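Appendix B. Raw example, untouched.
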Amino acid sequence: MTRFSRRGVLAATAALGLLIAGPAFAADVTIGYQTGADPAKVAQAEGLYEKATKASIDWRKFDSGADVIAAIASGAIQIGYVGSSPLAAAASREVPIETIYIAALLGDAEALVVRNGAGIAKPEDFKGKKVAVPFVSTTHYSLLAALKHWGVDPKTVEILNLRPPEIAAAFTRGDIDAAYVWDPALGKIKETGTVFASSADVAKWGAPTFDAWIVRKDFAKAHPEIVAEFVKVTADAYADYAKNGASWTVASPQVAAIAKLTGAKPEEIPELLKGNKFPLLADQLSEALLGGGSVEAIVATAKFLKEQGRIEAVLTDYGPYVSRVPAEQAAKLN
């Protein structure tokens, strides 16, 4: 907040002018987003984040959470969108990040699809097959959890590390037998494949996944107002969808905005949005999410990743990697 200096009327008038103009916390920020369909894409397309934060934002698209983590660890981006698996892996490696918003509780919007003619009709049929997935992603975690649930040793499956665009191309060529991925690649492979299981199924089997917005700790400390405004804009977008989502049809401007940013087909977006749950600001502040539940989910994910040999060790405390503060501050904003 601006402070008056008592050095005279001119100084006070200048300070008052700054106050009327609004908080001067503008900064340059680079944000990494992914191609999943979510309500906040509308706010992104309409420039609402720039308006609220008064920051110059460079939006960069990434194909996987692992790529986002690498960028945020290097300092190339300050805020990023990742899944719970890469988040748990990054926290386990003590990357200086904080989770500030649980962006989506994943369901049918991520799925394991088998290629028509690949000869996969039951879980045992995955043995010896080529299954593609972006490594250290939520779908990678879900695939391993599904195989464990079915009693299929992952060592008997040829699991390939491919990014979503590569998955879509390989699936079309017939180079792989199945893939676990999200849109727009998911929509593409469904054209010549069948959904075998979704993340909604895997959640019921005891391995829920989520997407989250994270921030570098140093940026959050230096620019708490920007982070709080970022959370507020995201929450407002989710609230708008919760209230008016029925009107987000194929012909609506909201769907057009999401399609432009994600590459997903407009006709698929309404159902994609229904495939996940998008928590509101009150949900963020609850014990189920930023109040403690998200930490528990990260711990469970980290333990599974350690069991699978994806990380070297599990931390004794994951609390420092989840923060309620930006959401609490956002709740106080008008």
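End of appendix B.
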